[in-house]
């Protein structure tokens, strides 16, 4: 291998390593930002007696997790939560959180173990659905 080819190869390797390190730093930053936002986002104390019958759309998207859903309210009770779009890796197990919300008629429910981020995203989306339409 000639000296020119060796120097070129070294430059390509260095640029590739720098780009990969930059990508890893970016992903770690975005992941930590997402996690912190999920932890810090406070859910409303929704008073269902103030929510009119109807269907309400809510969504929450943050880096690796996201959900858009429809909440159906009848007689001041949440009767159905339907996922319209969900973006997450291992978060599909989190859909069980919807049954907990319907059963308890509250967002104050335990998240799904192993899908905490996706569970919280669903709770935030339900909160947004029921509060944005009723302010």
Notable features of this structure?
135 residues; alpha+beta; Sufe protein. Chain: A; 3-stranded antiparallel β-sheet; 3 helices; rod-shaped
Account of the protein in words:
The protein has 135 residues and is an alpha+beta fold. It has a domain at 48-132: Alpha-Beta Complex (Sufe protein. Chain: A), CATH 3.90.1010. It has helices at 3-40, 96-104, 116-132, and strands spanning 54-62, 65-74, 77-87. A three-stranded antiparallel sheet has the order 1-2-3. The chain starts with a helix and ends with a helix. The relative contact order is 0.16. The mean pLDDT is 86.
Annotate the secondary structure layout.
Layout: H1 3-40, E1 54-62, E2 65-74, E3 77-87, H2 96-104, H3 116-132
Antiparallel strand pairs: 1-2, 2-3
Task: Please give a quick description of this structure.
This protein is of the alpha+beta class and 135 residues long. Helices cover 47% and strands 22% of the residues. It is built from 3 helices and 3 strands.
Which residues form runs of ≥5 with pLDDT under 50? Answer: none
Instruction: Count all strands and give the number.
Output: 3
Helix content: 40-55%
Q: For the terminal residues, how far apart are their CA atoms?
A: 71 Å
Count of helix runs: 3
Query: What is the strand arrangement across the widest sheet?
Result: 1-2-3
Strand content: 15-25%
Indicate the mean pLDDT: 86
What Rg do the Cα atoms give?
22 Å
Q: What is the CATH topology of one domain?
A: Sufe protein. Chain: A
The SSE string, one letter per element, is HEEEHH
What class do helices, strands and sheet pairing give? alpha+beta
Indicate the CATH architecture of one domain: Alpha-Beta Complex
Largest sheet: 3 strands, antiparallel
CATH C-level label of one domain? Alpha Beta
Shape: rod-shaped
């Amino acid at each position: 291998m000639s000296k020119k080819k060796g120097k070129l190869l070294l430059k390509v390797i260095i640029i590739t390593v720098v780009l990969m390190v930059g990508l890893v730093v970016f992903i770690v930053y975005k992941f930590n930002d997402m996690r912190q936002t999920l932890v810090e986002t406070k859910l409303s104390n929704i008073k269902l007696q103030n929510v009119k019958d109807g269907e309400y759309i809510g969504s929450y998207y943050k880096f690796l997790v996201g959900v858009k859903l429809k909440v159906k309210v009848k007689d001041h009770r949440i009767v159905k939560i339907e996922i319209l779009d969900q973006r997450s890796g291992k978060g599909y197990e989190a859909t069980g959180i919807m049954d907990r919300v319907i059963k308890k008629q509250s967002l104050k429910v335990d998240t799904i173990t192993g899908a905490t981020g996706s569970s919280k995203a669903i709770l935030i989306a339900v909160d947004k659905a029921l509060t944005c339409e009723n302010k």
